Amino acid sequence: MVSAVRAKYTRRERSVANDRSAVHHTPAEIRKLNHLAEPKRETLRVKNQRAILAAVLDPSEKTDAQDPLWEIRGLVETAGVDVVGELTQNRRTPDPATLMGKGKLEELKMMVKSLDAQLVVFDNQLSPSQGRNLEKVLDTVIVDRSEVILDIFASRARTWQAKLQVELAQLLYFRPRLKRLWTHLERIEGGVGAGRGPGEKQLETDRRLVDRRIDELRRKLSSVEKHRSRMVSQRREHKTVSLVGYTNAGKSTLMNALAEADVYAADQLFATLDTRTRKWTVPHWGDVLLSDTVGFIQRLPHHLVESFKSTLEEARYADLLLHVVDASHPEAEKQIETVYEVLDEIGVTHDNVILVLNKCDAVEDRSIVDVLRIKNEDAVTVSAKTGDGLDRLAAMVAQQLGDGAVEVRIEAHAGDGKLHSFLARHAEVTGTDYVDSQAIYSCRMPRRLLHKLDEFDARIDLLKPASGSDVSFDAEPIEA
To answer: How far from 421 is each of 66, 113, 415, 426, CA to CA, in Å?
Structure first.
């Protein structure tokens, strides 16, 4: 597989890479070459290619003994690759040079030839030197897990921000691997007193190109992140609920079902990368902002986590997280652990979470759901596809959001614009009546903000805890 980053070395940069005389460009010419174009959506270049899946497994780690390559298989199939063979090796300490031992490596080499494979995909994170060594030994294109995920992200990015984030992650991953592109010049040496050969010079030129583009992307993303932070902070007057979960757990489908949204949903890994926010009217509570976020996966590349931190701002500042789980998946428990690990990495606390066991209509072994419910008390089983259990989920959300909220009746002069503005920002106004020159507001607001009403010339009557606090619901599991 050729990485989308390599493909992004197009037109202007490739003219530098393919022309050896480029190492003699003047500083002014190099400055022009360093001015790169805006990020473009890249299509995957691996479709219909024949690939062998390979992995070195640590016996001490928990894996699916029957099918340890299920996830990487799903990833490459998402990328359009034709899997023609698989090979694994149990090895506590991977070989520092080639990951696999010599015997397994020879077996893999024979598989590449006999199956006419065009690339080998490793379900491991390969170091730059391991990648180079494997390409020399196997004489074929080598791709690791991170590069597969990066390529999929490149094909899924739609918005300008997502494209910037993906390109930055690709370049950070790709930079230490630039040397693999210039091995054909390693044997060309300069003459006496000539110093470095053209391969080393070109490598330095390429690194400068990449470094400048990384700086440019970080500046642009910094501006985008500031804008997003302002948007998120402005929503603090509204209750926010954020959907998080493993990729392909059904978050977008659930969002469509709850908020009557029309966001893209498909049975694909990383079908969407961009955060979408919609209004959701929760029965017995009112309107909240419901946000969908990018899906997680095991061993998500660190560069991607760093690049997408701004996109995950919605989860960081949410009042409530709905952790969506594919209850029909045999590795559901492991996926739950992975999501919490990623949330910890990006600094999102998960003490206010409802576990949503989705796709219950597809569950074949009911005991899996029962075990998950026993281990997770705050869990509700639903099917976003059929609508089963969504009423119980809404009731649980209303109860969670209602903790600490109160209903108040406020009577003030109808022309008090400051009070009206305060209530619009910090309360949910459920009704407004006018009597002569007086306005009577029925509101639901956080108890911690009640003292702020003393600043206004108004009569305040505390009615009762918000109705969401008194919502009762049936927590019994629904039939699969």
So the answer is: 61, 72, 11, 9
CATH fold of the domain at 238-400: Rossmann fold (3.40.50)
Helix axes 70-78, 145-156, angle to 10 degrees: 40
The CATH 3.40.50.300 portion of the chain extends over 238-400
Q: Are strands 119-122 and 50-57 parallel, antiparallel or unpaired?
A: parallel
pLDDT digit string, tens, across residues 104-155? 999 999 999 999 999 999 999 999 899 999 999 999 999 998 888 888 887 7
CA distance 221 to 263: 24
SS3 56: strand
263-279 burial, b for 16+ CB within 10 Å, e for fewer? Answer: bebeebbbbbbbbbbbe
Class of domain 4-214: alpha beta
CATH fold of 405-469, please? Alpha-Beta Plaits (3.30.70)
Tokens representing 475? 């927590």
For 429-454, b/e burial (b = at least 16 CB within 10 A) is: eeeeeeeeeebbbbbbbeeeeeeebe
User: pTM (2 decimals)?
Assistant: 0.68
